Amino acid sequence: MKYILTIAGSDSCGGAGIQADIKTITALSSHALTAITAVTAQNSMGISGVYEIPGEFIARQINTVVEDVIPDSVKIGMLSSSGIIEAVAGSIIKNGLKKIVIDPVMKASTGRDLMDASALTLLRDVLLPLSDVITPNLHEAEVLTGARVRNPSEMEDAARELKKMGPDVIITGGHLDGDCIDLLYDGNRAYLYQDERIKTENTHGTGCVFSSSLACFLAQGKSIIEAAGLAHDFTRRAIEQGYPCGRGPGPVLPAAISSQLIN
């Protein structure tokens, strides 16, 4: 059994955040350890409120879990404030956590900002150097680099810039025109994982599923190149099984994935 620690916010509609992480980790025959960073009041139409968990209690969640169970990898999602980032970074250092995947959640799929400016600075300066891989989407890559990221060439330029901050980089291209392309840059070369776009509105939680499945595959000992390809395929299958839930975009379904990708 592999143990994956997910540090993320809660989605009260169950499609993204820590709920999507738990479903993904469980689908890949691993055990989810959790530290909740924020509680949201949301449905498929949007977010009506966010309650941040105090940083000291986030650290207590992490430290208490790790005293008993050592995670094989860590997925980090929503970190909305500088105090939360400081608490998470401190816990990473204190516990010597390894195989850290950061999904830099900055906006909800409905457009609401989920990270303040001071947190963005600490993300770049403090947390990225402690991580192994970061998985921004196109918008998040633009915010982190300050450059336009709208096509594969610009994705590679942004990935090379982000790599200077420390971690390997996977820019997810679900918002590209045309085919969906995920791009990995590991400091040596760029790798493209490309497939035809799936025509569906039910894509809520794709970034969470990608990053948490990547953490699972890294925990299994896969290389970043192999893990990125497996996470790309896993997320694609989850999108294919997406379903309506409410009046807005429905969630993807990682629980429906065949066990062919496990181990």
Given the helix and strand composition, which structural class is it?
alpha/beta
CATH fold assignment: UDP-N-acetylmuramoyl-L-alanine:D-glutamate ligase
Order of helical and strand elements:
EHEEHEHEHEHHEEEHH
Q: Ranges with pLDDT <50 over ≥5 residues? A: none
N-to-C CA distance = 11 Å
In terms of quaternary structure, the protein is single chain
The proportion of residues forming helix, as a percent range, comes to 25-40%
Set down the secondary structure blueprint.
Blueprint: E1 3-10, H1 17-27, E2 31-43, E3 46-52, H2 55-68, E4 73-76, H3 82-95, E5 100-102, H4 117-127, E6 133-134, H5 138-145, H6 152-163, E7 168-173, E8 180-185, E9 190-195, H7 206-219, H8 224-240
Parallel strand pairs: 1-2, 1-4, 4-5, 5-6, 6-7
Antiparallel strand pairs: 2-3, 7-8, 8-9
Task: Describe this protein's structure.
- 38% of the residues lie in helices and 21% in strands.
- The radius of gyration is 17 Å and the shape is globular.
- The mean pLDDT is 94.
- The chain is α/β, with parallel strands linked by helices.
- The protein starts with a strand and ends in a 23-residue tail after the last helix.
- It has a nine-stranded mixed beta sheet with strand order 3-2-1-4-5-6-7-8-9, sandwiched between helices.
- It has a single domain (3-261), classed as Ribokinase (UDP-N-acetylmuramoyl-L-alanine:D-glutamate ligase), CATH 3.40.1190.20.
